[in-house]
Write a structure and sequence with these properties.
mainly alpha, globular
Length: about 190
């Protein structure tokens, strides 16, 4: 009997019927904050992806080394991007400014413009001029490793403000970015 009363109390605590959405872990404000955090984190990963593309464009001889890491970062963007809107009855979908990295084969790095990061993209703030890349491949790789460390730090900082599911994702991405930084600096022979 006590279990039934407790379960009933939990159910009424979740929906009391008065329309007040300011309480509870799934309140409208919490959902908006989580969405904003996801968009900001996607922008961090999208900017990192732009840096990979710029380095690959300037130093195509580094493709064997960088393409697998770039592919992983593209999947990070996909994981963080909001879900695509459902298709309409006529088969069309509302265009989304989010990156569709899953549709891009990782073996052929596309230009930043084809990834939804052109100057006109306002989806996440990761638009603007292409990152500058040093002429020396070693310096370019070191800068890319530094960008991976910054992305790792940004994801780690964001996870403390995230709901549990998003926090787990951000922790995984922070660890992956840190591993990429290691691979770029220590893990590959120069």
């Amino acid at each position: 009997m006590a279990v039934g009363a407790a379960a009933g109390g939990l159910l009424t605590a979740c929906t009391d019927g008065d329309g007040d959405e300011s309480r509870g872990p799934t309140s409208a404000a919490a959902v908006r904050a989580a969405k904003a955090l996801r968009v900001k984190s996607a922008g961090t990963s999208r900017e990192l992806l732009r840096q990979y593309d710029a380095v690959l464009e300037r130093h195509p001889d580094q493709a064997t080394r960088l393409t697998p890491l770039r592919g992983a970062v593209a999947r990070h963007v996909t994981a963080l991007s909001p879900p695509r809107p459902p298709e309409k009855k006529d088969g069309s979908a509302k265009p989304s400014p989010s990156l569709t990295a899953s549709s891009v084969p990782p073996s052929t790095p596309p230009s930043a413009a084809s990834l939804g990061t052109a100057a006109g993209d306002t989806g996440d703030g990761a638009s603007g001029p292409a990152p500058s890349v040093p002429a020396d491949p070693g310096a370019a790789i070191r800068e890319l490793a530094a960008a991976e460390r910054r992305a790792s730090d940004a994801h780690a900082d964001a996870l403390v403000h995230a709901p549990p599911e998003l926090a787990r994702l951000l922790a995984s991405l922070a660890a992956a970015d840190a591993a990429h930084a290691y691979l770029l600096t220590e893990g590959f022979p120069s």
